[in-house]
Amino acid sequence: KKKMIKVLNCKKKNYVSQLNLLLEKRRSSARISTNIVTKIVSDVKKYKVKALLKYEKRFSNNRQIKPSKEKIRKAIRSLDPKIKKAIDFAYKRILKFHSKQKTKNIKYIDNLNNKLEYKFVPIESVGIYVPANLPSTLLMNAIPAKIAKVKRIVLANPKLNGSLNPAVLYAAKKIGIKEIFNMGGAQAISSLAYVQKVDKIVGPGNIYVAKAKREVFGDVGIESMVAGPSEICVVADKYTNANDVTTSLVGQAEHDINSQCILITKDKNLINSVKKLISKILNRLPRKKIAEKSLKNNGIIIKVYNDQQIVNVINEIAPEHLELNIKYNKKILEKINNAASICIGRYSAMAVTDYNVGTNHVLPTHGSAKFSSGLNVSEFYKKISHITLSKKGIEVIGKKAITLAEYEGLNGHVQSIKSRIRSN
């Protein structure tokens, strides 16, 4: 019987470099050929709607990009009230938590009465890409944009088997999104950039969507993180319930064959229990094939020997999701610098955070939590500096600035500064 999941033993001195080899294997396999994306992007840039329609027909047999108001109303009416209530509940919690992230303008007046200001200005228009049937993703992307007072939000949501998604449309109505387009893949991203002409595009998608976002970046903004296939890292000890751990691992694995699930523990018995439980839980799973492939290709069990190794391993992985399901977590928590979202204690199942805890589920993957954060309200602002110098201010500051301008050999700068000092 083939081994289900790799085990890395931290007994060897070079365990960090061995870990890196395993992580890199997944990161490089994600780089499949996406040459077609470049062609789609340039086609849509040049031929606009005509090209968009061509690719929508080709890839998803879709001939209607803009759903009628009546069709949207009908779809929303068909939605089970129980799901509406669940969306309402999630909306409230996400709104509440993200409202606390509102920013404040900065104002500074120095002793020469110079005034420096830093203003947060909402981005004017944002395109949100939401994969077919994920209302939770629309809430996570659109609510922070709404809090930041983005004026125009455009939704791109591909049809699922040729039909509209009532839950996504219900969430869109709740948020107040007026512009809705049924389009997917690289052509949807290109359209948001060059047809709807938004200023920034956010929202997760498959490898083609991700590549298209990188292609249009520079013409428009994209999120400041790498949001790829989902990941989880679970830390467990001898007190942890093996079933809690295993369901967390399998739950992430069912997302995508490229998802990654990692268990870190000192406890040998727990490792054995988890290995046994994995196949049991997999057998009950509708998405068994996907989960199985993810665990086989990317799953890792890491056997550690002390707390420092736990910290080293986590900071090296920089996981998207971390479950700290251990009895004494304070010390370890203090030393974790690289993780996007940390669920602490036995009740904090990461899966809940995908929906309605209130924190955001659009998070950096592939180690990018080393340098970036999950989606938040400040993602939807630009910051603009305002400078008002006084007569005394330009005289005092200007003299020192002239010294630097002369050193850098920029005489035009010198002239410009002098002209203000003289004319006073």
In short:
By secondary structure, this protein is of the alpha/beta class.
Shape: globular
> How is the biggest beta sheet arranged?
6 strands, parallel
How are the strands of the biggest sheet laid out side by side? 1-11-10-9-12-13
**Low-confidence residue ranges:** none
Q: How would you state the average pLDDT, rounded? A: 94
> In percent, how helical is the residue content?
40-55%
| Computed Rg | 25 Å
Straight-line N-to-C gap: 87 Å
Count of distinct strands: 14
Number of helices: 17
Structure notes:
With 424 residues, the protein is an alpha/beta fold. It has 17 helices and 14 strands. It has helices at residues 15-29, 35-47, 49-60, 69-77, 81-99, 135-147, 166-175, 185-194, 207-216, 242-253, 268-283, 288-298, 307-317, 330-334, 350-353, 391-407, 411-422, and strands spanning 6-9, 106-109, 115-122, 125-129, 152-156, 179-181, 200-202, 221-222, 231-236, 260-265, 300-303, 321-325, 341-344, 381-388. The strands form three sheets. A six-stranded parallel beta sheet has the order 1-11-10-9-12-13, sandwiched between helices. The chain is globular. The model has no long low-confidence stretch (mean pLDDT 94).
